[in-house]
Please model this.
Amino acid sequence: MPANLSPEYIEADRKYRQAGTDEERLAALAEMLSAIPKHKGTEKLQADLKSRIAKLKVDIKKEGGKPKRQDPGYIKREGAGQVVLVGPPNSGKSALVASITNAKVEVADYPFTTQRPQPAMMPFENVLVQLVDLPPVSPEHTPGWMTNLVRNADIACLSADAGSDACVEDVESVLSVLAGRHIDLVREPSEQASVFSAVAEVPTLLVATKLDAPDALGRLEILREFYAARFAIHGCSAQSGEGLDALRRTLFSRLNVIRVCTKAPGKPPDSSHPFVLPVGSTVLDLARNIHKDLARTMTFARIWGQGKYDGQRVQRDHPLSDMDVVEIHA
Model:
């Protein structure tokens, strides 16, 4: 992806990846084309955007009065980010989701209990993170809609059953199936990765489940021996609760977002419903999220937070940190 892309372009790119209908994709592509810097380095990307817009317009026109198309496995994104749980059959994904979200997820000791994507909300301090429990990944049955969910997620949680001697072979099977669908699970995507790449690089945390099982700690070490260079690895048990609090914190930190609270002059801040923004966002980005007119009329802001003195006056381009409190003046 070309350098120096504006925050507006990056936000439109996010909307495109999260879209569930052709109409939503078309609107996002139009925003991307409008926001992209116009110079020689972006000519190929501009042409690609125009081609995609033209194709979508044709597709939408063909649909006519038919119901809008939507991916069969489309899950509306909610909360601070979307995490999908992928893994082999009976690897403990559903039990893990149930234990850290309190959602009523079907859990059983036989494989393929989960047949459809099941979203649930994981609380972390003052925000919620969406977890999506997916059916098992297997060579025999991995539908296209499921790989689309993995491709577009903010993070993938790759579950490995530390209670099974076949944990490494099972992980390899999952990686092989997804690679065949042009999805590469990685610790962090490369700088060259983009929505237009042939292979989608999905940031992934390998989660060793069932840490309470006999000999599970030994298998956790084996998983680290095989995969420490490729993934961050976290061990936990849905049964005993070991590692679950740390997992919540790790998942939130891997989303690469910050929470920003706002306040009106002379009023206390509202810390219960913070704005969630990408890491690197500025005061101006916050103003855009509050209201587009505020981004146009704001003159300065005051900020409270770690490493700042209370009520420090800052300009529109001031970078924000997690749990900053901002008072915007127009």
Remarks:
- The domain at 257-329 is CATH 3.10.20.30 (Ubiquitin-like (UB roll)).
- The first helix runs from residue 7 to 18.
- The mean pLDDT is 86.
- The two ends are 35 Å apart (CA to CA).
